[in-house]
Design a protein that fits this description.
Blueprint: E1 3-7, H1 14-27, E2 32-36, H2 43-47, H3 51-55, H4 64-71, H5 91-94, E3 97-99, E4 102-106, H6 119-135, E5 139-143, H7 153-157, E6 161-166, H8 170-186, E7 191-198, H9 201-210, E8 216-221, H10 224-232, H11 236-239, H12 241-254
Parallel strand pairs: 1-5, 1-6, 2-4, 2-5, 6-7, 7-8
Antiparallel strand pairs: 3-4
Helix pairs in contact: 1-12, 4-6
């Protein structure tokens, strides 16, 4: 597994799961690019990057000068020509921050109506996602927007696994099934479900019965360590032996 995309309804613990997976892959000796494509980026905190480092990070989509240099169009400019496939191959190295085997890159969110002309910005992000998933030689884990907005067909076909994080609730599972439909249209064939915030065996049974046609990679419990990590910004992988054990079992299932 070299290219992994992670999605799920807001609030299911997608970023927490992503941080655990990134740490586990790095522990196995992989150099991992952790890509934050969520509109509310908190993956850097979950990975344990220092606050002063996080404060200095600018999302790629907000780097106006870089976007103009690479696409030929000014940010927010209407009616201008721009490069659909700008050069982005140096961006993962030049614009990420690193800690051990983990390199973190904040993408920013695709922009739509009401944001001015976002064509150049979106072209930049799409080109970067394509490079990361298709051409990048290192392991890439992408914490995505709820669905698959950043992906085109060619990019999606390069994904080794799409992991949909769910919690034991109707809305979460309904959203997961919609994400799976979008993924199928794009050509993603290998999908897994991870159940999060599990409190009882009944929670596991609920997910299993409502997602019977999906491959379930594993379950993560709602532990006191998980709650504390969320409240205090600690690194769950480092504070919870139970979570560490569970995430390596999920990795085995993915392979």
């Amino acid at each position: 597994m070299k290219k992994i995309a992670i999605c799920g309804k807001g609030g299911v613990g997608k970023t927490t799961f992503t941080s655990l997976l990134v740490h586990a892959l790095a522990k196995e000796g992989n150099k991992v690019y952790a890509i934050d494509a969520d509109p509310n980026p908190t993956l850097a905190e979950a990975l344990g990057f220092p606050a002063e480092t996080i404060e200095e990070i600018t999302p790629i989509i907000d780097m106006k000068q870089l976007i103009e240099e690479r696409t030929g169009a000014k940010s927010g400019e209407y009616g201008s020509y721009f490069k659909m496939n700008p050069n982005v191959k140096d961006i993962p190295v030049e614009y990420s921050v690193s800690k051990g085997n983990i390199s973190y890159l904040m993408m920013g969110c695709m922009r739509g109506a009401g944001k001015g002309c976002a064509c150049a910005e979106n072209a930049m992000l799409k080109a970067l996602v394509t490079h990361l998933m298709v051409k990048e030689k290192e392991t890439v884990v992408m914490d995505m927007v709820a669905g698959t907005e950043h992906m085109g067909r060619g990019t999606a076909e390069a994904v080794d696994a799409l992991i949909i994080v769910v919690e034991p609730g109707m809305r979460s599972i309904k959203a997961a099934k919609e994400f799976a439909k979008m993924a199928n249209v794009l050509g993603i064939t290998k999908m897994f479900v991870v159940g999060n915030k599990i409190n009882t065996p009944e929670d596991e049974d609920y997910i299993k019965s409502n997602m019977a046609n999906f491959t379930i990679a594993g379950f993560l419990p709602q532990t006191s360590e998980a709650v504390k990590a969320e409240r205090e910004g600690t690194v769950l992988y480092e504070t919870s032996p139970e979570m560490k054990k569970r995430i390596f079992k999920i990795l085995e299932k993915l392979s």
